[in-house]
């Protein structure tokens, strides 16, 4: 059964992604990462807190030693949340938007991934501690596809990433946007989500294909994979930025600002530098 997140839930966050993760929980879009605008995580669910559990995270020099698992009984489902140090306790009742605690920069993240709330839904009889076993997720918002020619100017940088100014959000704050598949301006070809091509699979959102439909996926005029239903198997491609290979592109849906994000240990661009992305 598909669980749909309402537009009111998603409006609390400035971006989301169903596929931009290497972990099995995100397979076939069965988990979503929700990015709040600050350190405090607003709850994406309403229900009763069942458990808060500290877990050891993979050691990383940029990350905290521990992460946290929160289980919230919504009545219909058991919601499973990660990456929030809880300010709530078992037995507490929470509503959508209530603060759950502060986000944790966990060792489960790649170094270029910002803090976020990881959310899954599973049946009450399912093991809540396993990484797999959650229901497929859908979003009750239309994501506007933005065409892109592969060029842009660097406007933000970090140690392992750089964000371009293109494609630019046409109306920040008003609606969610994402990178158009194949440059489609009418949205019929969908929006590309996920880590291209450094994670095993990506997603094709908004095109509403049947589960067995096959759709060609292209970015900046280059073929990069094939979607079966909404899950994309990337081709064996290398992402090039100004002719040099990088780890890949981090793709997501956003309502505040947009622009393709280049990621990898070798990403070393200055603000104001012009970049052309290609695929080999």
Care to describe what's here?
Helix content is 1%, strand content 44%. The radius of gyration is 18 Å and the shape is globular. The chain has one helix and 27 strands. By secondary structure, it is mainly beta. The protein has one helix at residues 7-10, and strands spanning 3-5, 15-17, 32-35, 40-42, 47-56, 66-73, 78-82, 84-86, 93-94, 99-103, 117-122, 137-139, 144-146, 151-158, 161-164, 177-180, 191-196, 201-205, 214-219, 222-228, 231-234, 239-241, 244-246, 248-251, 253-254, 261-263, 274-279. The protein starts with a strand and ends with a strand. Strands 13, 14, 15, 16, 17, 18, 19, 20, 21, 22, 23, 24, 26 and 27 form a 14-stranded mixed beta sheet that branches.
Layout: helices, strands, pairs:
Blueprint: E1 3-5, H1 7-10, E2 15-17, E3 32-35, E4 40-42, E5 47-56, E6 66-73, E7 78-82, E8 84-86, E9 93-94, E10 99-103, E11 117-122, E12 137-139, E13 144-146, E14 151-158, E15 161-164, E16 177-180, E17 191-196, E18 201-205, E19 214-219, E20 222-228, E21 231-234, E22 239-241, E23 244-246, E24 248-251, E25 253-254, E26 261-263, E27 274-279
Parallel strand pairs: 1-12, 13-16
Antiparallel strand pairs: 2-3, 2-25, 3-11, 4-10, 5-6, 5-9, 6-7, 7-11, 8-10, 14-15, 14-27, 15-26, 16-17, 17-18, 17-24, 18-21, 19-20, 20-21, 22-23, 22-27, 24-26
